[in-house]
Every structure is written in structure tokens, then in C-alpha cells.
Design a protein that fits this description.
five-stranded parallel sheet, mainly alpha, Serine Threonine Protein Phosphatase 5, Tetratricopeptide repeat, 3 domains, 465 residues, 62% helix, Rossmann fold
Length: 465
Amino acid sequence: MMARIKVLISHYHEERALADAWKELLKSTSLGAIEAWYSSDSHAAGGMTIGIEWRDQLHEKLAESNFILAIQTPTSAGRPWVMWECGVASGIDKERGIIPIIYSMKPGELANPISSYQLYQGEDENQVRQVCERLTVAADLHPEPHVYTEPLKRYFNAIKLYRPRKAIHPEQIEIWRDRFEKLIQSGRTNEIFAMRQQMYASLGKPFNPVDPSVHELLSKILLDQGYFQAASEEVDYALKLLVAKYDDAIPVLEQAIKLNEQGSQPLSEPYRELGLAYRRRGTKLGSEEDYRQAKAYMLEATRLNREDDDAWGILGGLHKRLYEVREAVKCYRTGLEVNPQSTYCLVNEMMLLILCLKLGVHETSIDDRMRLKALSKQGESLLGSVTLESTNYWRVVNRAEVLLLLEKTEDALKFYKRAAEIVDTPDKLKSALDNLTYIQDHGDLPGTDKAMDILWRKREQIIPT
């Protein structure tokens, strides 16, 4: 049977047995209608094609895939390569589904951007079956329940071979950190690279970091000594542990930028991540200086990669926080030009233009009214299919925001109520609450107070006071 949908399995190389188990499961349950591919597949017809530049082939595979199945374990959670594949896949045209599959961990233990998607546990038969059923429906197939029985048995027999590595104790890392510090104090830094190799050999593979300080220490020394690959690995280990600790993450990201600048073609990602770290710290501390630092790094990220609509949206938000409204509008507009599917940029540009017109602070009101008319039409095209039965929180809340901006208050409140019904974390509420607060502070619109009340009540249910 010819493949009807294509699934790319993103995974850590050492866990390719899990990827292979999923490939066989999807192939068997769909009778070949689902074509699954993963980069380390050793079969003759699978994996990377010999003699072809691998980056080009991987990007091609990402572009042609309908879904990305991302395997996450305690060892591989947050691996930069898996994050990159999912980021590229979601950024190509925003139409790919990301399906994270977790092993040997609970949903709340996954602390990376993939956690914002619906998570499935790869060791739970009901959840694995649900993934298979949803993908076969996407392939326009409706197999009888018994079709899944034998493939699921083979899948669970295959993954029995996987066992998470025994955790490394912090005391082990402290011993090694003391050894590195003694070498530094005695002026023998030239021996650190060799001792680092001894450390990783003794701890075994795959290595799962537990203490960021030793990796920060090693990254600085190895960078000074010109061991760029090793220094980059140490930065990755440190960042994995510092995702939510902005004060600690910022110096590590600054090291990453130094490494990035060693290359002939610097990447935009380190600047974007450092900009995000400053923005988050600025939000936490209410620091305008942090927002300005974030803006500078995000400007460099957009200079290096103009096609990153998310970066343009983040930059627009920073201009908005700094009351640079005209620049914010330009950024949101550019993000929407880069990706016409970006409802985030659309909603925010609409909001700023409507409030500016309401307050009479924009000089080009005729052009703005024409632009608003075009945005309203585009919003209806992007979000008109969203109903009160929809289960995608972001699309539902974006629909509510557009309706509120167009002063269709009654319908807007219905969608805000639906958003409150399906939201599962307080973080997801923050963006919508921030927009409503901004509207209240800069002109207000009918229904804003009621929408705020709906979302705040839900937030209080999620986080009891």
C-alpha cells in the first residue's frame, strides 16, 4: 500500500531501538499506509542515504513529514538535536503535529518546550494504542480493534530491552569537580582535557548531567584552550540543567554565543535563547534593563535568520513592553509576512492597531484601518473553523482574542469560557491574561473585564491560593 502519511521519529542515537519499535508498530497497524522514518535506521532502505549531504536530506524529510514523533527519556529529554528537529518541523509551515513519547518518566518531569504538546507514555498500552489509532485515522484508515493486538505485543517485547541508566549521584560529580579545581589551582590546566575524558569514561554512557557548576567550569577552560567541540558539549550539559534558572543560564548562554562566533556562519539560536532568558528574567523582576538586553539579542537573532517568525513575535513583544509601539507593529507584521499562519503575530498586530486608533495616537490612521480590514479577513481565514468543541487551547484563545478585538463581545466570551475549560497549565493562561491587561491599560474594550474574570477564576482553580 502506498503511504498516506509520513512520520519522522526524532530520537537520541543511543535510543534507536525505541525508534525502531515505533517504526515497526506504525507500519504493522496501518498495513503500510503510515511510513515511519528515523535517521539512524540501519536497514538498507532506511536512514540517511549514502553519498548525500545529511543536513539537506534531514530537512527534506522534516518538510515532507505529517507528524514528528519525539522520543524522550530521562537521558535524552531536552537533547539539543531533538529540540532542533521539533523546532524546525513546527516552523516550516506550522502544519506538522508534534507527538512526544516519554519513557521512564512522568509528564510533569519533562521540562523542555516539547512538554507544551500532548504527552504520551510509551510504556502505557492504552496511550500507545491511542497514538496508533489517531495516526491511522489521520491516514483515513479505520482498522478493527483486533488489528492492534499482535503489533502491540511485539512493540512491548521490543521495548523491554530498554532500561534507563542508573542515576549518577551528585557526590560523584563533586569528586571530579574537586579534581578539576586542584588542577587549576596548581597551574596544570593543560591536563584538564585528558581528565575530562577519564571522568566521562568512568561515568559511562549515556551521560545524564546532575550538577551544572562542573560543566560551566569546564566550558570556560576548554573554550580558552581551543577545544570548541568539547566546550560546546559542556554548555549543552549545563543548559539542560538551567532551563528555568535564568540567572544561571545567562552566563552559560553567553559562553554558547562565544562558541557560536567561532564558526564562519554564526547561528541565530544562541542569540534567541539568550534573549528569551533575559526577557523571562525581566518579567520576573520587572526589569526594563533586562528587556533592553533581550531586545538587543533578539534583534541579532532576526538579523541572522529573518525567517524565524517566532523570533519576530518575541521581538515585537519586547518593543511592546518598552512602549515602542510602532516598532512592535513592524515586528508583528514581519512575523506574519514570514509565516502567514502565525496567529500570535496576527492577534498582537491587530490589538496594537485597534488600541492606537481608539486612542488616536497613530499618524497613518487611514492605512491602519485598511490594514485592520485585511487582518480581520486573514483572522477569519485562519481561525474561522475553530468551534466551541475545539480542543486546541491556543487556537481557541486566539479565536476569542480576535472576536474581542472586533468587539464581538458575546461570542468572544463564549470562546474564553471554552479556553478556560480545556487549558491544563497556568503558564498557558499567562499570554492571554497579559493581552487582556494590556487592553485594559491602553483603552479597554467591551467584555475585557468579564474575559479577565473567566481566566483568573480558572487560574485560581489550577493554582489554589
